[in-house]
Amino acid sequence: KSTVALGNAYYRIGEKVKARETLLYLLNQTADAEGVFLGGQVAANEEDYVTAETLFLSIQRTYPDPGRLGYSLALAQYRDNRFAESRRTILDLTHAGRQTAEIYSLLGWCYQRQKNYDESVAAFERAIDLDPKKEANYVDLGLVLIGFRRYAAADAMAQKAVEALPASSKVYEVKGMAEILMQDYADAERSYARASQLNPQSAEANLGLAESQWAARNVHEAFATFEEGLKQFPQDALHFQEYGRALLKYAEAGDALAEARAVTMLNKAVALDGSLPEPDYLLGNLALRKGRTEEALQHLEQASRLDPKGGKIHFALSLAYRCLG
């Protein structure tokens, strides 16, 4: 345990090589399996997945809980983007009779990352069967269905989920998300309103409510919900981003004050979270329409760096370059 603690300390001060050497020292000692397992967990938590895997594999024959060890190994492989290996590790566990909701949930994500729709859904459904009261199982399945654009299936699943877990804010959020994508804005507004009622501290629920109100053209209600969100969640960049987007659309009718407010919102979103490409895209697109091409170029190039595959960003950027010759 002292060796593991020393390795953890090295990770914390940025000495990754020393941390790895310290933990791998366990392999040459008569360390108990639990201590080696602990070292693997520390390495995995610090995103040193190769070291974690090495330590986990070294105790496969001696660790008293093969299910826990196998899941930890599979999780490290998954986080290292080695989805096929993680899937094989999990399937070895299930074939050996070790079947838990946690294991099947991870299997579902492995299949999802490999774009295997049927297998992913089946794994999450098995996780729900094994633990029907666990909220995350329903939420994960809903997000996977939405990711595969099976919006009606996601909505149907969410309906079953709210019947099983009527006090869950998260499953109502998934239901609202599916309904927005199906353009059932009134139903989405009700779902997000219920989610926000169940968990007033959920920024996602409040944002979803505002977006569904905006989509349903309940403009004043949407703006009031956005404003409430800014007060309650002043560090949530997505509130500022989406409020800015809505204000820009509203300003197209010639409302200069709404446009100025939108720019303020979008700049605040950038300040809060510099990894979001959308605020820079929206600001760049606005500047481009206003003829401020140099300003547009700065925003659009930044958006392109943050989202290199963004088609609309590339299109707007091409227009800026054309304007500048």
Structural write-up:
With 325 residues, this protein is mostly helical. 77% of the residues lie in helices and 0% in strands. The protein is built from 19 helices and no strands. The termini are far apart.
Q: Averaged pLDDT, please? A: 95
Could you give the count of β-strands? 0
Measured by DSSP, the beta-strand proportion falls in: under 5%
Helix content range: over 70%
The SSE string, one letter per element, is HHHHHHHHHHHHHHHHHHH
- Determine the structural class based on helices, strands and strand pairing: mainly alpha
Stretches with pLDDT under 50, minimum 5 residues: none
Q: Give a quick account of the main beta sheet: strands, pairing sense, barrel closure.
A: none
Task: Work out the helix count.
Answer: 19
Secondary structure topology:
Blueprint: H1 2-12, H2 16-24, H3 33-45, H4 49-58, H5 66-79, H6 83-95, H7 101-113, H8 117-130, H9 135-147, H10 151-164, H11 169-181, H12 185-198, H13 203-215, H14 219-232, H15 237-251, H16 256-272, H17 277-289, H18 293-306, H19 311-323
Helix pairs in contact: 1-2, 1-3, 3-4, 4-5, 5-6, 5-7, 6-7, 7-8, 7-9, 8-9, 9-10, 9-11, 10-11, 11-12, 11-13, 12-13, 13-14, 13-15, 14-15, 15-16, 15-17, 16-17, 17-18, 17-19, 18-19
